[in-house]
Amino acid sequence: MRNIRMTVSYDGTSYSGFQTQPIKNTVQDVLEGALLSLTGETIKITSSGRTDAGVHSRGQVINFHTASKIPVHRWCLALNSLLPPDIVVSNAQEVADTFHARRSAVQKTYRYTIRCGRHPDLFKRHYEFHHPTPLNTDAMQAGLQWLLGRHDFTSFCSVRSTKLSNIRTILKARLECEPLDPLLNSYAIHIYVTGNGFLYNMVRIIVGTLLQVGEGKRTSDSIKEILEAQNRAKAGPTAMAHGLTLWEVVYDQATN
After folding, report:
1. Does an H or E element contain 62, and which?
2. What's the gap between Cα 13 and its chain centre?
3. Which long-range contacts (CB under 8 A, 24 or more apart) does 120-126 make?
C-alpha cells in the first residue's frame, strides 16, 4: 500500500465542515467520493484537523493509503477533474507509511479576516467578517501578545470540546492591515495565529474577544485576566465562521 499526502484548499461556504457526518455534505465526503470514482477503492482519508461549517482552507493536509498505481504526479490532475470547483487538491507526494496528517503536524496557522469600514467587499463576502465601525487595531495587537506561550486556553474553548487537556502553545500571533480601499471606504484586517494545536472554536473565540478590545469594550490587558480565569464565560462571543481560514500546516521533515 502507498501512503499519499496532498494539500487541500476549499471554500467552506457550502459545506457542513470538513469531517464526515451522517446525512450532511462535508469536504471529506466529497473527497472520498472522488477517490472512489478514481480508484474503485473505498478510501478513508486522514486530515490535519477538522474545520467547522463555513470555515475555509488554504492549506489543509490529508493523507490516505491506496493500492492504486496512479503515478504521483497524476493524482492532482485526476482528482481535480472529479471535484467541484470549490475544492482543489495540490502538491501530491508519496510519503513514508509513518506519516499521519494530524499526528505528524508540528504547528498550524489560522487566519481570520475582518472587513472594517462602512461597506463590505461584495467579492470577498464569504471570506471576511464585516465590521462597519472603526476598530482600535493597536489595542487588538497588544491583546494578542498575551496569548503567546503555553497556557490553559479553557476560557477560549467551546464548552462542547472533548479534549482531555486545554493546554496549548501559541508560537506566533500578529495582526496585519491592508491599505484603505477608497471605493468601499474600508480595509481588511488579518489576524494570524500559529500554534502547536487548537481547541474547538479557539481561534473564533479569540477573535470575538479581540473585537471587543477593538471596540473599546475591553482593555488589551483583559486578555491576560481572561486566560487566568479559565472560564469560557469570561471571554467574548464566538466570531462568525466565514472569516476563518486554515492557512498552513507545518510538518517535521523527518516524518515525510
Report:
1. strand 56-66
2. 13
3. 120/184, 120/186, 121/181, 121/184, 121/186, 121/188, 124/188, 126/11, 126/13, 126/56, 126/242
Within 8 A by CB and 6+ apart from 151, the residues are 167, 168, 169, 170, 227
Strands (E), 85-209: 87-95, 105-117, 129-131, 149-152, 167-177, 186-195
Question: Would you tell me which CATH number, out of the four given (3.40.1190.20, 3.40.50.80, 2.30.30.30, 3.30.70.580), belongs to the domain 2-103?
Answer: 3.30.70.580
Whether 138 is catalytic = no
Q: Measured between alpha carbons, how far is 119 from 197 in angstroms, rounded to an integer?
A: 34
Confidence grade of residue 255 (pLDDT, cut at 50, 70, 90): low
User: In terms of CATH architecture, what is 106-250?
Assistant: 2-Layer Sandwich (3.30)
- pTM to 2 decimal places: 0.94
- CA 47 – CA 163 distance, rounded (Å): 17
Q: Which of 52, 138, 181, 221 is catalytic?
A: 52
End-to-end CA distance of the chain: 16
Is 110 labeled as ligand-binding? Answer: yes
Distances in whole angstroms, Cα of residue 220 to Cα of each of 62, 85, 144, 215: 37, 41, 8, 11
Model pLDDT for residues 82-128, shown as the tens digit of each residue: 999 999 999 999 999 999 999 999 999 999 999 999 999 999 999 99
